[in-house]
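Exercise 7 asks you to align residues with tokens for two separate proteins.
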Amino acid sequence: MLCMGIFFVYAGKKFATADPTARPKGVVLVVETGIKMVYDYLKSIMPKKFEKNYYPYFAMLFIYLVIANLSGLIGFEAPTSNYSITLALTTITFCLIQFNAIKKQGLLSYIWGAVWPPTNLLSILSPLISLSMRLFGNILSGSILMYLVYQFTGFLSSFIINFNFLGPIIAPVLHCYFDIFSGCIQTLVFVTLSSILIMMENPD
């Protein structure tokens, strides 16, 4: 979070001093390209009326999740392998879903629809559980599998030399899947499902 904060402050200063009539380059080009990609994707899912309030949130969420999921590549424990982190992120989305539902139905209609029939309460709570557990489970399982790979390669290496030389040979291929591919896919899935669930409560 500290690195992200420093980068955003630095990028903000670059944007403030950049010439709007000149072709972007360097940090400005990278940030503009990334934001445009996220915004173009969100526009294909959510109507334009959501742009002002929700696109910045989902852009920030997308950036955070990508960095969090890929942090295992540089030796850190992925924050999203901790359920408290994924639950906190999902709680924000859950509150936005309920806010849009209340805005559409009215408070009294929303409360009545939530408690009667009683099974409706389960459908209201299900996104909070499914979104948080999906992201947490997939990232944690990848971390556990990579830990087992390093333990196993270390065990095999010990028969030849007291150094895990097989790990750096075998692990990079698996890191490409469990950290890079799976991390990016889970980010996309979380953002996509969150945006769809919010939009479904206020489609008009």
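Second protein for Exercise 7:
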Amino acid sequence: MTTATTHDGGSTARAVHPVSGGPIVQLPTAFGEFVAQAWTDLATGAEHLAVSSPKVPLAGKAPLVRLHSECLTGDVFGSYRCDCGEQLAYALELIREEGGTLLYLRGQEGRGIGLANKIKAYALQEAGFDTVEANEQLGLPVDARCYKAAAQILAEMGLHEIRLLSNNPDKQNRLAAAGVKVVEMVPTEVPSREENLRYLQTKKDRMDHRLTLGDTEPAGTHAAAGTFDLEQD
């Protein structure tokens, strides 16, 4: 057990989520040189990957951290139905430049409902439901993800205070509850597309994501990795 301080100055016991880390190895990528470490959630068996920049953050700055939920359709196939693959590329670019870690969380496909259910939800979206309504029609949570293992992995890596690369304030709140202090939210908004605009609008309106949706790219265009700068956030 570990302890967390309450608002009144007292402390409360907080259970440590069991995780186990493997060896640290070099990971040269299209985005630059990184080091990688696989982690196993001993409670669920899920395997996650920490991809870290060897660059040390500037003095006085907390490291950048991205909790990236696995998205096969977006990360691997470049689906335009979401912004996941482009957020992944954008986060790796920033982490390489400024120092920090991207924690790739496997088993969180479709905000935790799984790949097959995500495709079922897509079918419902094509019938007119938004992403929240589609999950509800399937009798599934709108967001079934758990960040306890992620928080413990960050703690094991010594990342107790971070700058969180995310548009989702729920991640900040849940990390704080698990003992990781988010000192800054760094937006990861990338240009929207005609194919994902309704999806992103739903996340903004119904899930409180911090999105401006000011830029929309024409259907069929694809921005290359590394072309998103801070002015676009």
